[in-house]
Design a protein that fits this description.
The structure holds two protein chains of two kinds. Chain A has 15 helices and 19 strands. By secondary structure, chain A is α/β, with parallel strands linked by helices. Chain B is globular and about 45 Å long. Classes of the chains: A alpha/beta, B alpha+beta.
Amino acid sequence: MAEDKFDAIVVGAGPAGSACAYTLAKQSKNVLLLERGNSAGSKNVSGGRLYTYALELLEPGMYKRAPLQRKIVREQIMLLNERGATTVDYFDPAFGEEVPQSYSVVRAALDEWFAGEVETAGATVASGMLVDGLIEENGKIVGIRLGDEEMRADIVVAADGVNSLLGQKAGLFGDVKANAVGIGVKETIELPDNLINARFGVTDAEGAARVAIGCTDGISGGAFLYTNKGSISLGIVFNAVQASKQKRQIQDIFQDFKMHPAIQPLIEGGTSVEYGAHLVPEIGYQGIPSKLHREGMLVAGDAAQFGINTGMIIRGMDLAIVSGLAAARAILKSTNTAETGLLYMKQLEELLLISNQRAYQNFHNILGIHGIFEAYPKLANEAMQFMFTVDGKVPKPMLRGLLGVVKKNASFGQIAADGWKAYRNL
Amino acid sequence: MSIKRLGPEELLALDKFSVDEGKPHIVVDKAICATCSGRVCLVVCPARCYRLKDDAVNFDYAGCLECGTCRVMCTDKGVTSWNYPRASFGVTFRCS
């Protein structure tokens, strides 16, 4: 194999790797895309929503070929206390017109399709291939090792996921820090489409995306629920450090959430079919390593810790696709391997990925406000309870009653401090 | 069919695993775990691969979901080596 040399070897057939390999193959580059799973997507877990603009950047209309689940027309926010819930439901059919803004996705299907597109575009796609290491010569990365085999290329793109062992082997960054990740767990629950449609108020092609807080035992983090075709993705992402500083197994907290009186009826009649877990880059811009390239190598997608979490909007796959595209464009533009890295950073700017990350750079500080995850959801529900209670007794005056609810859950000083913290970081 | 609370074994039973017998992809040094006071692996491993047995941390790689949580969270470097399972081994997700 030593005489085989590729223009590029892309490691990891997730959205970043496939976007990169697809773009290169379309420009007739000799590309090898390697995936450690037996098929693309078989090692991947994500909440399950893809913002469509990223596929549009790659190739207008491409999303129409993709095995997307439901276009999201309902954005829902749920505040839970022990037994109750307050839900905000934003319905906007315009999210479903022209190019729909986002879709729920199932990775096993999406990634496999994407890798198939890469193959059709002319790249060599090999699954069941675990890259063991890099080949370095004269300070440059010149290829990869697969067991005893060596494969060479002008450039290696590491799109090997949040744990990016290749990026570490290349000396670009160290271990991911505990404070930079969330621990995501997810159960996939099969549920007939007619039940999904009725329970979430959607038609066959439409779906809801829901985030929930107040269900993590006070740990910073939140739950998600996505409606797919014939299934529901239900999960929680926990702040890793806070999860490690308490005593309950996160599985137990997750199962409590699943069985919550406001959640369980949504999935009742369904069948649990899969359980997965994945680390999530959590701190956005500040979590991105300072070095994402060296001569002969670029790092893209989760491996580069690209991610945006505002509590309401959770983005990863779109940023992965954009970064894969940026890597491909840099490779296509460069005339020698020495300049590819800087061209990549420039493309990340030009494709607005970096400015998107920067726009939300202080957001995780807001998620550091402890009350958001327990006291405030409780407060909201108790305020609702007060306002909707009719029991024949003489009610307290509205203002006094509400102030009482507020006082019970948080001091005014704390609320003012949290409000100020939120304001400063917005 | 009804939705019920699932225990750790029931959750993992939903998944498809191909275990690389005798070749753990994660190596844990029990001597280090013996003196570890934090033992955060017990609460944060989503697969519960780390369990307390006779007051010692017991690790079983068979149900590993390959998420990397233990690698990132282990405080005393008891996880001495962390890799992905060899090709064709480990978990296979079909509908996540």
